[in-house]
Amino acid sequence: VAAQNCRKRKLNAILHLEEDVCNLQTQKESLKKEHTQCSRSISRMKQKLNNLYRDVFSRLRDDQGRPFNPCQYYIHCSSDSSVFIIPKHLVDSDQGEDNDKEQKQKSD
């Protein structure tokens, strides 16, 4: 009787584990679909942002009426909704200095 009860509990445990596996497989498929949808959405948003960026740059002019070159400038939006045109070489050099500081701190 004890052996029968033990086998019965083991079979019940196996059945529950099989149900859990099925549920997890269903959840995995659902998450894969969600991931695919999110990836597509991100790609669309990136494309829209890129189009907007090009559109904004096509309309910008410096003091002499010349267009800004998007290869040489960044558009920066601050938290107070101010928009700035910043030369890339200034931003790139600031990032390089920050990376140098981080590397020095890690080596110390």
Automatic annotation (TrEMBL):
<dbReference type="GO" id="GO:0000981">
    <property type="term" value="F:DNA-binding transcription factor activity, RNA polymerase II-specific"/>
</dbReference>
<dbReference type="GO" id="GO:0000978">
    <property type="term" value="F:RNA polymerase II cis-regulatory region sequence-specific DNA binding"/>
</dbReference>
<dbReference type="InterPro" id="IPR046347">
    <property type="entry name" value="bZIP_sf"/>
</dbReference>
<dbReference type="GO" id="GO:0005634">
    <property type="term" value="C:nucleus"/>
</dbReference>
<dbReference type="InterPro" id="IPR047167">
    <property type="entry name" value="NFE2-like"/>
</dbReference>
<protein>
    <submittedName>
        <fullName>NF2L3 factor</fullName>
    </submittedName>
</protein>
